[in-house]
Amino acid sequence: MGTCRKRRPPIEEKEAVFLRKKITLTRAIALAIGTMVGSGIFISPKGVLKNSGNVGISLLVWLACGILSLFGALSYADLGTSITKSGGHYIYLLETLGPLPAFLRLWAEFIMIRPANMAVVSLAFGRYIIEPFFAPCHVPPLAVKLITATGITLAVALNCWSVSWSANIQTGLTALKMVTIGLIIVPGMMALGNGQYENFQNSFDTTSLAIEKLPLAFYSGMFAYGGWFYINFVTEEITNPKRNIPLAVTVSLTVVTVGYVLTNISYYAVLTPEEILNSDAVAVSFADKNFKSISSVLPILVALSCFGALNGGIFAASRMLFAAAREGQWPALFSMIHLQRHTPLPALILMLPLVYLMVSIGDLYGLLNFYSFSRWFFIGLATLGLMIHRYRHPEVPRPFKVPLIIPLVFTTACFFIVGTSLYSDPVNTSIGCAVTLSGLPVYYLVVQKTRIPRCCTSKFNSMTVKLQILMKVANQEVQTY
Predict the structure, then answer these.
(1) Structural contact between residues 61 and 52, judged by C-beta atoms closer than 8 angstroms
(2) How far is CA 205 from CA 54, 58, 62, 200, 412, in A?
(3) Minimal CA–CA distance to 256: which of 201, 185, 321?
C-alpha cells in the first residue's frame, strides 16, 4: 500500500515572507521631500554660487534644476506606473535597454554613487550636529567622522528593524525640515521687506561668469534636488502606485522648488556672496548673522534634516540591490527578507563598508563631483530608455503617460551636463567613468555567463546558506509586481 504525502497548506499572506505595501501617499511624499531636503540646500548654495559666478545666475540655476528635476520625476512616474517592479533606475534600464546598462548602473551604484552620496549627506549631518559644541573653534575632522559613522549605523539599524518605524520617522523628520526651511525663509523675507537689497545689486555681472564651470553649478543644484527618484525604488511597497506615484512626485517637486528658491533668496538677503563662499555651513552663518537667538538650535535642525535624507536614501537604495539579486545580477542572498521584520536585511547591511570608506576620505565637494557623472549619465539613459520603450512597445498599458518632449528635454539636459563636465572637472569625471567601466569584466566573467570554477561556486553557496541561517532571512514568497 502506497504512502500518501501530506500536502503543504498554502502560505497565508499574514505569515508569508515579502515586502508589505506600507508606503501611503503621505509617506511617499515624505520620502521624496525628505530625501531631497537633506544636506543639499544647506551645503550646495556655496557650490552653485562658486561655479555660476554671480547671484543672478545662481538663482536661475536653482530654478532650472527644479524644473529639470520635475521633468525627470514625471518621466519616472511614467516608467513606474507601466513597469511595476521596485528598483528604480536599475529596473528601468534592464527593461528598456537590456542587462548590460542595468548591471553597469548597479555596479556604479554600489561601488561609487550610493557610498559617496551617503557619505556627503552623513558628513553634513556630522558637521552640523557637532559644530555648536565646538563654537567658535574649528571642529576636529576626526570628531565629525566618528559622529558621521554613528549616524550611518543608526540609520541602517533603523531600516533593518522596521519599515513602519523608518517610514514614520521619515514623515516626522520631513515636517521638521519644512520648519527648518521656514526659519530661514521668514527672516530673509523680512530683511528684504526692510530694504536689504545690497547683495542683489549687479546680480548678473558677467565679469565673474565662467561658462565652462556652469555644469558643476548644475551638479551642485541637482544634488540638492536628488531624491525625487527614490519613490520609484519602492514601487512594490506603495499603495495604489498608479495614482500615488505621479501625485507624490508632482507635489513634492513643487514644494521643494519653491522652498529652495526662496531659501536662496533669503541667504542672499542676509549674507554677501563672499560670506557664502567662505562658509562651510551656510545655514549656520545665516543664523549667526541674522537670528542669534536660535543660532545654536539651527545646526541641530539641519543635522536632523540630513539624517532624514540619509534614512530615506538607505531605505530606497537597498531595494535596488534587492531587485538586482532577484533578477539574477547580484548574489542571491541580497534578495532575501528577514522572516519576522520583513525588511531586506542583507541588502541594507551590504551598503555599510564602502560608506565608511568614503566617510574616511571626507571631502564633500570632491565626493559630489566624483559620483555625479555616473548618476546623471544613467538617469539620462533611463529616460532615453522610456522613449525607446514607447516606440518598441506601444501596446504596453501606461496609466500615466507624459508627452515625449518632457523625457526628451530631461535626457538632453543630463547628457549635456555630463558631457561638459568632462571639460569642467576632467579628473573626478574620468575617475567616475573608469569606476563605472570597471563593471564590464565583472559582467562578462561572472554575470552574463558564469566562468567561476565549480569548487568556488559550491563554497559560495555554502557560505550563502550559513549567512541565511545567521541573519534569519528567506526568499520572497509572494509576488508583489
Answers:
(1) yes
(2) 7, 12, 18, 10, 28
(3) 185
- DSSP class per residue in 14-34: TTS-S----B-HHHHHHHHHH
Three-class secondary structure of residue 481 per DSSP = coil
- From residue 113, how far is each of 110, 116, 243, 245, 440 by CA, in Å? 7, 5, 30, 24, 17
> pTM (2 decimals)?
0.86
Under 8 Å between Cβ of 345 and 337: yes
**What pLDDT score does 14 carry?**
60
Give burial (CB, 10 Å; 0-12/13-18/19+) of 177: buried
CA dist., res. 135 & res. 480, Å (int):
51
The pLDDT assigned to 374 comes to 83
For the chain, 481 residues long, the average pLDDT of each consecutive 10-residue run is: 44 69 90 82 78 87 93 94 91 93 91 82 83 75 88 92 88 88 88 83 73 78 85 91 93 94 91 83 77 73 86 88 90 89 89 85 62 84 94 90 95 87 77 87 80 78 89 84 73
- Is the Cα torsion angle 210, 214, 215, 220 positive or negative in sign? positive
Q: Measured between alpha carbons, how far is 236 from 337 in angstroms, rounded to an integer? A: 14
- The CA distances from residue 442 to 87, 218, 281, in Å, are 20, 32, 40
Q: What is the pLDDT of residue 404?
A: 94
Its sign, for the CA torsion 349, 351, 357, 360, is negative
Q: Mark residue 402 as left, alpha or beta (left: phi above 0; alpha: psi -120 to 50; beta: remaining).
A: beta
What integer pLDDT is reported at residue 255 of this predicted model? Answer: 94
CA separation for the pair 347, 367 (Å, rounded)? 23
CA distance linking residue 304 with residue 310, whole number of Å: 10
CA dist 71 and 473 (Å) reads 38
Task: Tell me how far the alpha carbon of residue 340 is from its chain's centroid.
Answer: 27
